[in-house]
Predict the structure.
Amino acid sequence: MKNTITTLLLLAFLSSCKTIKTDRVTASANDGNPSQSMQINNPVIKDKYTGDPAALVYKDKVYLYAGHDEAPNDFNFYKMNEWLVYSSSDMVNWQEHPAPLKVTDFTWAKSDAWAAQVIERNGKFYWYVTVEHGTIPGKSIGVAVAHSPTGPFKDALGKAIITNDMTTKTNISWDDIDPTVMIDNDGQAYLFWGNTVCHYAKLKANMVELDGPIQTISLPNFTEAPWIHKKKDWYYLSYAYQFPEKIAYAMSKSINGPWEYKGILNEIAGNSNTNHQSIIEFKGKDYFIYHNGATQPNGGSFRRSVCIDRLYYNEDGTLKRVIMTTEGIQK
Ligand code: FUB
């Protein structure tokens, strides 16, 4: 009898192990070894379309901010009314927080919750966003502020910090988009942004006023989506290159340049004409966060999905080309 019970328990245990194993989706590893069982973790957010990822490392978590792609399946342009935020302690499991910011939170804005980035300074979180201005034709950059990375956020200025009439190097009305921010080691903050022309300016310590003239940076085939980050003593300016977009990058020893173009970092992301990257280091590993349009059956350039893959540096500080994967980040 005792042997029968032991056998039954063993069979029950083995069958539960099988269930766990079949819950895992088998996929080929990066090295092409099909024998490895890995989870499919790209895209990261599966229940909503998300684009323009911008990640913030704060304390022991990563906060992932993204625009919400709400375009219906038969609509071929952006429909974006709000930004979303998710957090993770391991880059694999993501928790959604209530939508912390909408276009309507900026009374002077009309539409278009386009690309954005959050940065922390002295315990306050500043969220630089792209929106269509209500009265000044063209895209503008606004700033929201909160005491927590998940909000609640409110308009910090009551007006745009950048409007289309402040930049005149190109006539297009959407050249003032895609803000990225960095606070340098000496405490000086910088705002970079642009489409067709890459602009940058210093920010005052209050983070809501420019502290000097708007300058431009010459980068080959610059389209949009600048992302500024620093690693060791190198500054990196990555950006969307050509259209459909690849991601390319330049390096400099100073945030004020000169910038040396270094080549392509990421190829065109599946089924999307934009690519929009964010680069972070978290718990000793480097990550490349981007979007593609690969979610079936309706994903595409206006119904995008945020994905994450590893980023690797060479000894000399240059970047290895990103390998976009279906598996994404594994635990
Ligand atoms: O999401 C709208 C626009 O598409 C962003 O501002 C660009 O960077 C591109 O991703």
Summary: The chain has one helix and 19 strands. The helical segments are 2-23.
